[in-house]
Amino acid sequence: MSRGKPSPEKCPAPFLKWAGGKRQLLPALMAHLPERIGNYHEPFLGGGALFFALVRAGLLAGHKAFLSDTNPELIAAYRAIQHDVEAVISCLRRHRHDRAEFYRVREQDWRALSPPEAAARTIYLNRTGFNGLYRVNRQGRFNVPFGRYKNPRFCDEDNLRAVSRALRKAKLCQEPFERVLARTQRGDLVYFDPPYVPLSPTASFVSYAKDGFSLEYQERLAEAFEELTHRGVHVMLSNSAVPWVRRRYQGHRIHEVLARRNVNSKAERRGPIKELLITSY
I want to staple 34 with a disulfide (CB 3.0 to 4.6 A). Which of 61, 124, 128, 234 is the partner? Predict the structure, then answer.
């Protein structure tokens, strides 16, 4: 098993790397929170960076958290950590960091494994695969190659236990983002972090969910944003700084932020890029 160096980041923190993850944007996200937060809703959960930051800051104490995503493997991993983190850790301890082990584990069908085994597989592949990518083929099978890491830390026991504690009172669901409309109340906070409108035809990360996230879905998301705003729900949304997004959300507060994107096969295409943070309040 490879443990690596302890993470300097406070726990709980994301246990997965995720395309479009928001760790580096946390200062901007936290600075644009509403003055008061009711229950918290995150329909595009991914790595959950903002949720964990809110927990660390004590801002969700006494409130409920509703966390969801359409990715069944992702939600299964969260649920396994929520319900039996020690079993997940035990399964992770059995993995080794080498090429043969990686491809052996990659060939497994996570749906045929026990929940702790499936979660350990997801974490192991995510932390040892190329550049932290999560990508599936048309059959829904993980197809990222082996990564070039000397000593990746895929079993961070302290953080996994902290994540489990943070998730104790959270509601985890595999569902479309529109379901948030049925459970929000005035004063709640919804954070939408969808697959971004691509900067170019080949720059999309939407393959993390094999059905993709088309412009039609982006339009439906904008309509949900407007309905929640009308109800008095606090809504915050991240997306790319492209003209379509600026036009569609005109009338709301649009903030420009800089993010560094490391999930790209070509190093020269990684680096600071302008993104938009849109708030209804």
Answer: 234
Q: Residue 236: helix, strand or coil by DSSP?
A: strand
Ranges of each domain in the chain: 23-279
Report CA 218 to chain centroid distance, whole Å.
18
The model's pLDDT over 163-203, given as tens digits with 9 standing for 90+, comes to 999 999 999 999 999 999 999 999 999 999 999 998 875 55
- Domain topology for 23-279: Rossmann fold (3.40.50)
* Global confidence as pTM: 0.89
Query: Which H or E element spans position 49?
Result: helix 49-56
Taking Cα atoms as reference points, which of 55, 50, 23, 67 lies closest to residue 237? 50
Cα 83 to the chain's mean position, in Å? Answer: 19
Strands of 130-270 (E only): list them.
170-174, 189-192, 234-240, 253-261
As a whole number of angstroms, the distance between CA 153 and CA 7 comes to 9
22: closest CA among 41, 5, 45, 55? 45
* CA-based radius of gyration for the chain: 18
Rounded to the nearest 10 degrees, the angle between the axes of helix 157-166 and helix 72-93 is 140
Q: Which CA distances in Å does 27 have to 10, 14, 32, 53, 193?
A: 14, 16, 9, 10, 16
Interval 107-132: pLDDT, tens: 999 999 999 999 999 999 999 999 88
| Alpha helices in 94-238, H assignment, sequence order | 99-106, 115-128, 157-166, 215-230
Question: 127-136 burial by CB neighbour count: b if 16+ within 10 A, else e?
Answer: bbbebbbbbb
